């Protein structure tokens, strides 16, 4: 049996998501038997990007954040992309979903710019995490401890810095998601 058989995982993304940060974790957890929903702020397909500025593929949305609850999922993945992360952090339904998952002790994995949503939701105080370098001041100002490491696990929170760290990130999310 695969490590994540029977697990339901939400990937929170919208227009501007960094394509590889959506596809690489999705492929990893699907390969371990998980069921995955792309959850967004609206039902329309989302436009992914490469290096934040080059339009890439579009991806269908399975569910809308306003219509789901943390109880629907065993874990959450938040890919980056500057525009994606900025839009997600402003959405109250996304913040509610992430807050409820964190509060319930469910694993939440964020890569690159995605910790902006955690900062906006008030979820980094007292936590150690990593991110893209430009977010580290925001993390510190929000009471978190930013570090420069490939992947960091702090309780139920898993973070990585950038697309270069995706192999370590994917290995770690499979390990941590399997524990729940």
From TrEMBL:
CDD domains: GATase1_PfpI_like (cd03134)
Residues in DJ-1/PfpI domain copies: 7-175
Keywords: Glutamine amidotransferase
PROSITE patterns referenced in this protein's UniProt entry, alphabetically: PEPTIDASE_C56_PFPI
Thylakoid keyword on record: no
InterPro entries: C56_PfpI-like, Class_I_gatase-like, DJ-1/PfpI
Family: Belongs to the peptidase C56 family.
Name of the featured protein: Type 1 glutamine amidotransferase domain-containing protein
């Amino acid at each position: 049996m695969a490590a994540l058989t029977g697990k339901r995982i939400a990937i929170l993304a919208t227009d501007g998501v960094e394509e590889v940060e959506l596809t690489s974790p999705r492929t990893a957890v699907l390969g371990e038997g998980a069921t995955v929903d792309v959850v967004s702020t609206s039902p329309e397909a989302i436009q992914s990007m490469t290096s934040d500025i080059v339009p890439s593929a579009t991806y269908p949305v399975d569910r809308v954040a306003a219509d789901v609850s943390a109880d629907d999922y065993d874990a959450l993945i938040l890919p980056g992309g500057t525009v994606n992360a900025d839009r997600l952090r402003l959405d109250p339904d996304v913040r509610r979903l992430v807050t409820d998952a964190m509060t319930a002790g469910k694993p939440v994995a964020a890569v690159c710019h995605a910790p902006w949503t955690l900062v906006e939701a008030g979820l980094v105080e007292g936590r150690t995490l990593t991110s893209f370098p430009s977010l580290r001041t925001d993390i510190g100002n929000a009471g978190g401890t930013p570090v420069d490491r490939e992947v960091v696990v702090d309780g139920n929170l898993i973070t990585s810095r950038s697309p270069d760290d995706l192999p370590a990130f994917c290995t770690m999310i499979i390990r941590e998601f399997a524990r729940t």
